[in-house]
Fold this sequence. Notes:
heterodimer; A: 326 residues; ABC transporter involved in vitamin B12 uptake, BtuC; B: mainly alpha; two-stranded antiparallel sheet; 2 strands; 3% strand
Amino acid sequence: MGTIIIFIQKAIGQGVCMLLGANGEILTEKSGNLNLGVPGMMYLGGIAGLAAAFMYERAVAVPNAFVGFMLSLLAALAAGALGGLIYSVLTITLRANQNVSGLALTTFGVGLGNFFGGSMSKLAGGVGQISVAATAGAFRLKLPLLSDIPVLGDVLFSYGILTYLAIAISIVMSWYLNRTRQGLCLRAVGESPATADAAGINVQLYKYMATVIGGAIAGLGGLYFVMEYSGGTWTNNGFGDRGWLAVALVIFARWRPLNAIWGSLLFGALYILYLYIPGLGRSTQEIFKMLPYVVTIIVLILTSLRKKKEDQPPESLGLHYFREER
Amino acid sequence: MAGQIHGVHEPLFHISKREDCSLLWAILVRLAAIALALVVCGVVIVMLTGLNPVEVYAGIIDGAVGSSRRLWVTIRDTLALLLVAVALTPAFKMRFWNVGGEGQVLIGATATAAVMINFGDKLPAGALFAAMIAAAMLAGMVWGIIPALFKAGWNTNETLFTLMMNYVATQFVAFCIVYWENPAGSNSVGIINSSTKSGWLPALFGMTYGWNLLIVVVITAFMYVYLRYSKQGYEIAYVGQSVNTARYAGISVKKVIIRTMSISGALCGLAGFILVSGAGHTISTTLAGGRGFTAIVVAWLSKLNTFTMMIVSFLLTFMAKGAIQIASQFSLNENASEIITGILLFFVLGCEFFISYKVEFRHRRKED
Lengths: 326, 368
């Protein structure tokens, strides 16, 4: 029983990162932008949140956890949004290719994150290991009372605020996309921008907003990893391939935020499954780490085989839309 | 007509396609973008580190071409990047987004290493190299064909499929490394055949990386001719322009997709061979080092012209090598190179707009 609870907790811990990244990417892709810069934006969010907390905690004698929390949250949102904005300017205004721009954003974001994370202590004058204990503590704060319930409290209520925020974002996004007029317009832009344009929808505005806000949400994924998962420390490339798993999760969830919630749980579980299966050699463990990707490929194939209309990627995904070139 | 426009709100500026873009303008815009990117990088470097950017750029040049050895390492890495970019080109020309170069390179490298480890001392040199090349190309080809089959048959999204295949390949390499590790427990393969040097590409014309140079240049030239003058190259261009037109013209689109991706994958596999046999003589999960992704940018920025790719891959490798040098010189983190590369790419990608389009502001339009 104890092992199962820990397994679920760890799976959720892995999944939240991917869920936030995937939520950001779903919003972006719904506008027809295939932003492969997700890993980059997640790195940007992570490092900006850490840097903000770090500078704050160094500047004051007794850091206030709440101030540190807000500062790093805002910094992560802003940095992720900035990544989305760079991508938007390149692909929407300057009409550059989406795939190439996204990959360039990933290169930039990952580089910036590792550069800063690796040299922050030196740049600050050699303070040794970076530690933002107060801020990280705020991110790791469990729900009072509820988390004390045995079993149920451990499984459902033992996480930091970002975990619940991630789920809330999924629910709000699902409502927004499916139940509001703006959400309908956004989906129209992603499916057929020419039609949306003819209907008087401001295609460029929708694309910009979806991509920038999507970037901000993805940035939170990086913040989660740095603050709650790693407890306010940085390891170069420690983030690993979670950014690409977030892209994979979008496909797995078939562009639905609610699917992404349980999808992220499954991905998180698959990601750490090898640690919990007894008798695995080191080499077989590596094969097990393939699972999330293999599962994604299978889902991708199945959705294209079944050709169900509502499971397909947005029709204009990855294609640029310029009114003059119709 | 002009009279009717009166009273109608006219946008601040007006964008139109540039029909007659002179070569001079195209070159000027690109040079301006690179210059601007270097200025921005300089500003970023000063802001981050407080170092003198001129010193930093001097360090970059020194690091990339400062000595004969450094120059050759830069050339070696340029060649590897160039080969991957050339390999991806036919797929892109067909508008098939092969984002899986990374995985195809890795799997080719793994096949090469497998042959080196298992047959290194059993086969004569000629047969060994033939087997290594064949294994690498076959492995890359398989990795490329899988997404192509599904694209051709069921229109499965190839960008996402090939992207996922990268990580399946990475984990496969990780599996093989544990299997082959030397010494045991090190979680690395070490230098393969370090004593016998069997399966290592020898020097050619006195150049350590002579074979790399020869292979890559031949493939680059071949790809140029293949795409421009062969019937198959013509078919690829047709499919890329419009699948429906191609079908109407009697081209079997499925066949072209599968054939082209097998070429693309096989050449990526060959790049894996060169990285193992002609450069590192070892295998690791980071062997491809993001080349599969950088090569996409290289191919795209070069407008799929294989000769322009030589310049672009040299420029990017130059910056990367230089940045590693300044990182150690100023004891910074070597990821500075990725920041510089990223900024450079943003500017060069953005500047293409000013080559393809012209922006006319409202006040320029005379009311006549």
